[in-house]
Design goal:
single chain; alpha/beta; Rossmann fold; 5-stranded parallel β-sheet; 48% helix
Length: 151
């Protein structure tokens, strides 16, 4: 059924909440490959213009190093639960990179979390999950935020 599953993570507990679905689905479907992805949005061109080229390269490398450490930790957690995963670190617009990667790499399913924004917040900040849902040619499973204790 699902042989290749893409899981975008931003380092937050919220994004990691999608991993429970990854574990369930890989167990049920015997998925062969799980790809954990972290995407860095490019620095603002105005900021880049103020940086020395060497500093910009060092910032990029520092991000990649931190992202690799984070993703390796998640891979180990999944491995303990019997899920084999690999990692990808990309730069660009998160929604566009998720969609592009899924299409170029024959991904069967995207599993991700949503922040659950609504109203003005959603209008101003947009939603990566919403953009992926609207534009993906691959099925997308969304993990909504946990209900608050006040509900």
């Amino acid at each position: 059924m699902f042989k290749k599953i893409l899981v975008p993570l931003d380092g937050s507990e919220l994004s990691e909440s999608a991993l429970t679905h990854v574990i369930d689905i890989t167990t049920d479907c015997h998925a062969l490959e799980v790809i954990l992805m972290r995407i860095r949005e490019p620095l603002d061109p105005n900021v880049i213009g103020t940086l020395d080229a060497k500093v910009a390269v060092e910032l990029d490398q520092a991000y990649r190093d931190e992202a690799a450490r984070y993703l390796d930790k998640v891979v180990e957690t999944l491995k303990e639960k019997g899920v084999k995963a690999k990692t990808e670190i990309l730069s660009g617009n998160p929604a566009e990179e998720i969609i592009r990667y899924s299409q170029k790499n024959d991904v069967d399913l995207i599993i991700m979390s949503t922040r659950g924004r609504s109203g003005i917040s959603r209008l101003v900040f947009g939603s990566v999950a919403e953009k992926v849902i609207r534009n993906s040619t691959v099925p997308v499973l969304i993990k909504p935020p946990a209900a608050s204790k006040d509900n």
